[in-house]
Fold:
Amino acid sequence: MNAGPHPQIETYPEKEGLLKTLTYIVSAVVLILVFVMRSVKLPIDWDVSFLPAVNATLNALTAVALVFSLYFVKKGQFVRHRNANVTALALSVIFLLCYVAYHFTTNEVQFGDADMNGELSELERAAVAGVRPWYLVILISHISLAGILLPFILLTTVRALAGKWTLHRKMARYVWPLWFYVAITGPVVYLMLRPYYP
Structure:
């Protein structure tokens, strides 16, 4: 256990290998779950209709935690920076659990599906033709980045835990804005889809 850039921050360089292995395992499991939940629906009679709103809220709170994380690191308040990142990670884990629970039990909602029958008619497509391309750009970038970013978010965290501050900073410079984008676009996607939830 070593001190970090602040005397109150402990590091665990001896656990770096284990943490990296866990990062790859967790990332692979999440990726598999995301692919499987699109095609498999569990016959569980739970009302999870509240989860999209919960997920949007968790994403928004993650964005707030990330803003605090950036603010604290710019001020040199490393303990608060760490705590904000732990909060962002915890919120993201809760989001992931809720997201998987929702998609394993509920059919996808389609943007523009005004009659909520699960299919887009020509009339429904025409009604949202001007907005749908924007929705798809936001949705696809949100989902793609979320999937790609997970191991990088975890590896950035591992570098901090191992006390590799230079590498942590270099990686965080790219990971933070992308993570923030994912956190912000989550609520945007929800708000755009909200009229089409049953």
Notes: Residues 132-161 form the longest helix (30 residues).
